[in-house]
Every structure is written in structure tokens, then in C-alpha cells.
Write a structure and sequence with these properties.
By secondary structure, the chain is an alpha+beta fold. It folds into 3 domains: 84 residues, no CATH class; 36 residues, no CATH class; 109 residues, Zincin-like (2-Layer Sandwich). The protein has a 5-stranded mixed β-sheet, with helices on one face. Strands 8-9-10 form a 3-stranded antiparallel β-sheet, with no helix packed on it. A hairpin with a 6-residue loop joins strand 2 and strand 3. It is globular, with a radius of gyration of 20 Å.
Length: 251
Amino acid sequence: MTDESQQDWFGQFAPAAGVHHAPPQAQEGPRRDIVFKRSANARSYRLTLGRDGVATATIPARGSQREAERFVEQNREWLERARLRQSRRPRAAVVWTVGTQLLWRGGFEQIRPAAAGEKPAVSLGSDVFRVQRLEGDLKPALESRFLRIAKVELSARAWELAAQTRMNVTRVSVRDQRSRWGSCTAAGVISLNWRLILTPESVRDYIIFHELMHLKEMNHSPRFWACVEEVCPSWRESEAWIKRNGGHAGL
């Protein structure tokens, strides 16, 4: 799920975590502020605003450019509001140095020097990470360690919740996704963004439940949200947290 904003033909807001369609072929439209793309997998017209500020209008297989343009105009006010919200959202620090405050396991922690033997190390809360040096940008080194931790912890939790909900998952992967929190396929493959390790456990579980329920409903219909509600009654609180803090996680 990205924290990417989305509007579909039915005027419903939907968490981008459920966006799992294959990348469509790009087709530039006549409007300079909108990119029009046709997707064979899309069932309806969709308007999204990416984290890079680019708005994309998706055209379903049987749709038309003209109808897509009409859909964009009908949702122009929504797009402007989404852009305004995006401009006001907090963003993660570009460079991480000693003293930088980061989102880590649901809370904000300051990077501090830590004693860890002969090699330099820093701490985030109670977690200690070895680094090559304390000077300069620590982001590449720390993110690589976060990714390793996430691959272990998120995969284990996904399999645990899959067993709990009796969903037939075939594979779980943890990747560096740049525009969504998670995705799934009809074949039972669940992909999770490593940045979920930065969020509270409740948010992590919500995203996993969200993707698992797509194995029942590959859409965002009322039936899908009823499935989510059944396994994760607090999903609305998690969605609110993502909207408030997703920028701190770099999405």
C-alpha cells in the first residue's frame, strides 16, 4: 500500500496499499499536469497522486482517452486537495547524521553514538547498529540493516497471520518499494515494504491483513472492507496513523 493518494470512478478513497496491478504502458495525455496510462488489468478509471507529485489517470482496457479526461475533470477538486495535503505532509530527513530524529518501530528516536566494542555504532532506542564511521550520512548503512531486520520479522509475521486467517499464501517477499506499503497477487504472493518495520505493530499488522484479505476480494469493494473489519477492527486507526506519519517513513 503506498501512501499514494487515489480516487476511483466511484468517488471512493482507497489506501494505495491495495494497488497491486501490473505496471501499465505509459501514454502521455494532452494535459501537462496529468499522465494518462492504459492498463489491461484496471476495471475502472482511476486517478492517483504519486509521492513525486505526478498525477496519473489510469484507463481501463475498454476505456477511452476522452472518458478519462472527463473523469479527471470531475475529480479536479479532489486532486487539488490531495496536492495540498501532500505539500503539508512531513517528510523524512534526506541525510541521517548523529542527532537526526527518525521514525523507528512506531516512535521517534534520535540517532545517538553507542559503545559497541572496537567498531563505531549508533543506537535508536534500545537497538544498536554498527556503522563504518560516525561522521557523514548514516542513511545507507542504517537502511541496509533495517532491510535485513524487516525481511526476517515481517516475513515471519505475515506467515503467522496467514495461518491465523487461513489464507493460502504461497510466498512472502520484503522489498524496497518506493510507492506502496504492500501488494498481493491472485497466486498468493504477498509483497511488503521494509519500511513497515518503522511503524507501530498495529499498523504493520493492518497492512498485512489488508493484503491477505485481497486473496478473498481482489478489489476495494464493500465486501473487501467487511473482510478487513472482521480480522482487523482497528484498521481505521492504522489508516489515520499512516496519513499522519507516512511521510516520516519516506513514503
